[in-house]
Amino acid sequence: MTSPVAPADAVPSGVPPEPLSPHAPLPPRKVIRSWLMPLSERSTPRALLLFALDASLFVAALAALVMASHWLAKIALGILAGVLIARLFILGHDACHQSLTPRRGLNKWLGRIAFLPSLTPYSLWEVGHNVVHHGYTNLKGFDFVWAPYSMQEYAALPWWRRALERLYRNGLGAGLYYLIEIWWLKLFFPSRRQMATRRRIFLADCLLVAGFAALWIGALAWLAMATQQSVALLVAAGFGVPFLVWNATVGFVLYVHHTHESVAWYDSKAMWARAQPFVSTTVHLRFRHGVGTLLHHIMEHTAHHVDMSVPLYRLKRAQALLERALPGRIVVQNFSWRWYFDTARRCKLYDFQALCWTDFRGRRTTAPSPVPA
């Protein structure tokens, strides 16, 4: 007599199963997270080393920028500083999830410090990202990050906002999107319309990053005068360029994490819940030439959404484990500029009834996603 097959959620905690059939029911999130438990161990020394490395490189890039004699060298070093801001931000992002070190208080302070060069108020990011984005990923009306309009919503926008949406989604506007729609409107002294909840810590964190920006710009201006350089050039290269590069980087990363022909958006909470969004609504984007390592493995994004407690230095292993255990369930995309601009060309608006992307005229450009059972 054959023994009955154990259900998928009967897998012992911490033990990943044999590869699950793409047609079998997906195990509950708590079961999938249990497979990643051995990879959720956090290391304070490792976190401090990463923070010290990236902070030192950022300061060194700015120092070299001040000392560089040619304006092109200053611009190049400003671009490098922008990339280093992104690396520091990713460390702060982990700290905000309490996954950087096992010490809660240390995470809060490391996160605030790591967020300073990107001018990100820690507590506001914590609410918008940890609570809203991770709690309701790709649910329209809740998750606001790169949430697409429907054809009807787009048609109802004023002309200038339609023009802005076209600019955001042309493949080159990701940085502008983040700068305006996320940082300016929702993070940097947000209005009551954008953030109805008012807390003293929100204001304190906004004042903290504003003060840091003033010190940063002031120091560059003082150094320019002390070394008989152009104040405008040094401030532009040492503050403006890094900040714009940072915005372009984070805007791009957020876009490719959740915009893909195989990734659905939902305007029904019941349908969204049935879609098991912690697995289905994000993309593992694979790069060559060490780009994934440069960005602290944040592109191993499915593992991060399944279990936010996995630290960035273990995400690569966690992602590989999930892809072995859940073949055919996870969206994996090899990056190329051809793919990226093709995605930007096709993914303009979203048809929430057909579960597919459309162009700005409402014409379908992707195959409909399966309706969650």
How would you explain this protein's 3D organization?
There is one protein chain. This protein has one domain. The protein is built from 16 helices and four strands. The strands form two sheets. It has a two-stranded parallel ribbon with strand order 1-2. It has a two-stranded antiparallel ribbon with strand order 3-4. Helix 2 packs antiparallel against helix 3, helix 3 crosses helix 10 and helix 8 crosses helix 10. The longest helix is centred in the middle third of the chain and has 28 residues.
Task: Describe the protein's topology.
Elements: H1 29-35, H2 44-67, H3 71-96, H4 104-115, H5 122-133, H6 151-155, H7 159-168, H8 174-187, H9 200-226, H10 231-258, H11 269-274, H12 277-280, E1 283-286, H13 291-294, H14 301-306, H15 315-325, E2 331-334, H16 337-346, E3 349-351, E4 356-358
Parallel strand pairs: 1-2
Antiparallel strand pairs: 3-4
Helix pairs in contact: 2-3, 3-4, 3-10, 8-10, 9-10
Q: Which terms summarize this structure?
A:
16 helices, disordered N terminus, two-stranded parallel ribbon, mainly alpha, two-stranded antiparallel sheet, globular, single chain, 373 residues
> Level of helix content?
55-70%
| DSSP strand count | 4
Query: Quaternary arrangement of the chains shown?
Result: single chain
Q: Rg to the nearest angstrom?
A: 22 Å
- Going by helix content, strand content and strand pairing, the class is mainly alpha
Widest beta sheet: strand line-up: 1-2
Average pLDDT taken over every residue: 92
Distance between the termini: 33 Å
Which H/E pattern describes the elements?
A: HHHHHHHHHHHHEHHHEHEE
The largest pleated sheet is described as:
2 strands, parallel
Range of strand content: under 5%
Shape: globular
Uncertain stretches: 1-12
Query: Total domains, how many?
Result: 1
Number of helices: 16
